[in-house]
Here is the input.
Amino acid sequence: MLGTVNVHDDDEIVTEYLRIGLAFDLLEEGFVDAYTGDPGLRAQVRDEGVPDPVVLGRRAAQLRDRLPAGLTPARAAFVSSHLRALECSAARFAGEGLRVRCSPTTPLDLCGSKPTPVYLSKLP
Here is the structure.
């Protein structure tokens, strides 16, 4: 049903998004510059050990493919953009080049117009 938000899906999607993002902090300390959520979730992610960036990228892509999954359109768009940024970061951590299709909304740094690398996303 259009416009209906399934709270269970919403919680599941957001929690997985947070888990993926927090895992990046194990690859590079400080990747997540602020996290005020459940410290237990951060501890769980930490206890899983240092992740494989390729696996993190796949998880982000798979989660993005599930959207909107009960999220409002605005929230789905927000989470989708952050998941795409995490996919790009995963590729960089894995030593791959960025695989970005440039569009009018793609930051110039990703299209090769600027030579300096950027990290695309940090969880708020």
Q: What stands out?
A: The chain has four helices and no strands. Confidence is low (pLDDT under 50) at residues 1-8, 106-124. The radius of gyration is 15 Å. The helical segments are 7-27, 39-47, 53-65, 73-93.
